[in-house]
Amino acid sequence: MSPLRRRLMFGIPLAVVVVGGAGFYTILRRMQENAYDPHALPSPLIGKKLPVFALPGADGGQGFANTDLLSLPKPVLVNWFASWCVPCLQEAPMLAKLAKAGLEIWGIAYQDQPGDLANFIAANGNPYTRLAADASGLTAINWGVYGVPETYLVDRTGVVRWRYAGALTDDVVSGTLQPLLQQYA
Amino acid sequence: MRKLVFVLALVPVLAYAQEVTRDGVTLSQAQETRAEDIGSQLRCLVCQNESIEGSSAALAKQLRVIIRQQVVAGDSSKSILDYMVQRYGIFVLLKPPFMPLTWALYASPFVALLLGVFGFWMARRGKVAAPAPLSDADAKRLDELLK
Questions:
Q1: Which of B83, B88, B92 is the best mutation test for A, with the most CBs of A within 10 A?
Q2: Nearest by CB to B89, which of A5, A8, A41?
Q3: A158 and A81 within one domain
Q4: How far A51 CA sits from the closest chain B CA (Å)?
Q5: Residues A170 and A131 grouped into a single domain
Q6: What's the rounded mean pLDDT across residues A28-53?
Q7: CB B88 to CB A146 under 8 A?
Q8: Residue A41 lies in a domain
């Protein structure tokens, strides 16, 4: 066996294991830090303006259209939710906290019944500056929403900067949302 | 006889002329077949490893309706797929398109093949040539040593 061959025979598998292990370790570490979610889908809306829509108000709130999100004094969080969705219930305290801290949150109730929505808001409080209803769910399809809750960050010029699918947690808010809010303030 | 054969040959056409109702949309069998073909190329984002056609999720049902409405309206299959990609991104396609993001994916079989050829070449190159047959004297000595 030539020395080169011997070196390659031991070196190549070792290199594969080392590189693979380092990659795997990075993925796990980033998952633990909530910096990487293998189930997260990039939204095609990032960097673009929202599609055309006009949704009626719900539960006494003021509805809104895409044109209402084009020129804003500060970034707005648009939160898709539903009274029938358990993660939305878990997310409610976080939204209340964010609203109290001065963040403007606009809500869209996805495929909800007015009575159920009223009960949900009565029980969990109303963090929404504006509250619209997408009863048919067709606007949600145009946004690429594939479940509730989903949260979009819209900057002052109406460009979507971030989308998060799932309930907002402390880690997501402090690790991702707060830096983005500072960036686009 | 010839007439009978002709009539029998037309029987499959009847299946296509028939109307079907799927998820509340009425369309011809040919349109339904096209809609199913489109739906089976699209991922259900709720359950992620099922196609829209095979999923029982509410969103998948709603997308099946949209596909069928667009098929009835006469939209091309490509424009319907584009409609979905525009909203949900390329992940919605069960077969990833060939693009910079997927180059590594499509190149991987060829890379594996090249690695295999390289390994084979290394193994061949390292093989030591078989020793020349023993001379009579050596053979005799070997026999003695092995006794």
A1: B88
A2: A41
A3: yes
A4: 10
A5: yes
A6: 87
A7: yes
A8: no
Read off the CATH number of the domain in which A113 is found: 3.40.30.10
| A113 and A176 belong to one structural domain | yes
Ranges of chain B whose pLDDT falls below 50: none
Does the predicted TM-score (pTM) go above 0.90?
no
The model's pLDDT over A93-109, given as tens digits with 9 standing for 90+, comes to 999 999 999 999 999 99
Q: How many residues does chain B have?
A: 147
Nearest CB partner across the interface for B86, out of A1, A44, A137: A44
Yes or no, beta carbons of B126 and A39 under 8 Å apart: no
Chain B: give the shortest CA distance to residue A1, in Å. Answer: 6
| CB spacing of A144 vs B87 below 8 angstroms | yes
Tell me which long-range contacts A83-88 makes (C-beta under 8 A, separation of at least 24).
A83/A109, A83/A112, A83/A113, A83/A116, A83/A117, A83/A119, A83/A120, A84/A112, A84/A116, A85/A110, A85/A148, A85/A149, A87/A148, A87/A149, A87/A166, A87/A167, A88/A120, A88/A148, A88/A149, A88/A167
Range of the domain at A106: 54-184
CB spacing of A142 vs B87 below 8 angstroms: yes
Encoding tokens for residue B3?
A: 């007439």
* A62: three-class secondary structure by DSSP: coil
Average pLDDT of the segment spanning A54-63: 95
Q: How far is B53 from chain A (nearest CA, A)?
A: 16
Confidence of residue A24 (pLDDT cuts 50, 70, 90): very high
| Residue A58 and residue A21 in one domain | no
> pLDDT tens across A128-149, in order?
999 999 999 999 999 999 999 9
A89 and A144 part of one domain? yes
Do both A15 and A91 map to the same domain? Answer: no
